[in-house]
Amino acid sequence: MKKFYHIELTENPNAKYAIIPGDPGRVEKIAKHLENPVHIGTNREFVTYKGSLCGENVLVASTGIGGPSAAIAVEELYMAGVRTFIRVGTCGGMQKDVVGGDLVVATAAIRMEGTSKEYVPIEFPAVSDFDVTSALVMACRSMKKVYHTGVVQSKDSFYGQHAPERMPTSYELKSKWDAWIQCGCLASEMECAAVFTVSNALGAKSGAILSVIWNQERENLGLNSPKVDGIDAAIAAAVSAVEILIKQEMQS
User: Fold this and answer.
1) Which pLDDT does position 112 carry in this prediction?
2) What integer pLDDT is reported at residue 252 of this predicted model?
3) What pLDDT was estimated at residue 5?
4) How far does CA 7 lie from the centroid of its chain?
5) 73, 150, 182, 244: which could form a disulfide with 63 (CB 3.0–4.6 Å)?
6) If you count DSSP H runs as helices and E runs as strands, how many of each does the chain have, helices first?
7) Do 236 and 33 touch, CB atoms closer than 8 A?
8) Low-confidence residues in the chain, pLDDT < 70
């Protein structure tokens, strides 16, 4: 187990699927959706549980905040045998129709972070896997939840988004934010670009489903902008998507 330097698993999980929230506090909650969940590792921001779905071992492992931590988690979980990753987390809406409580299935991520640049040149896009994304969409439809599919923005600085005017690079932050909105970017978050890029570099599959917390653009325009903290629907969709993927693999 020496190769799992950061996630420090206590056993070889023998699992090909992993649901990866950022927040360690959400791991146990997600793991309760699995059969026979057990805790198998904790170190720093990395908490890991193992359970099963449809007879297959599945991990739930936190990645912490941001690209560097997420990349470490994906790298070491891949070393442990994981080949399919689903990020489940939160985001802030950017388009006017993306409202608090909605779900966002990310098809790609704007690489406005540093981690992915140490894997592939900036010209290479951070894209999710089609099969994983399709499974997430199927899960959202079956739940009859309001969902959006499209591009999200991955950033390194939370406060660079929420207080750009006090940053020396405010001119760049503001102009790029406007450009992302004009191009239809759905939401802003902090891990998708790293998860997608590292997965692609390793030859693994990945996707992401995000719960919209609120929308600062709606608030700036004086529109109703509810704040919704729960991510139960996103968790349910991620678990359902893993079940779909396992069943598809069984039938192939």
Assistant:
1) 97
2) 83
3) 86
4) 18
5) 73
6) 8, 10
7) yes
8) 1-3
Report which residue type is found at 144: K
Interatomic CA distance for residues 174 and 164, integer angstroms: 7
Token pair belonging to 236: 């349910």
Which one, of 243, 247, 249, 229, lies nearest residue 86 by Cα?
Answer: 243
Write out the H or E segment, with its range, that includes residue 127: strand 126-127
Alpha-carbon distance of 50 to 14, in angstroms, equals 9
Distance in angstroms (rounded) separating the CA atoms of residues 131 and 86: 11
Domains belonging to the chain, first-starting first, are 17-251 (3.40.50.1580)
- In Å, how far from its chain's centre is CA 20? 7
Residue 33's pLDDT is what?
98
SS3 (DSSP) at 169: coil
Instruction: Tell me the three-class secondary structure of 18-75, residue by residue.
Output: EEEECCHHHHHHHHCCCEEEEEEEEECCEEEEEEEECCEEEEEECCCCCHHHHHHHHH
Shortest CA distance to 46 belongs to which of 31, 32, 25, 30?
Answer: 25
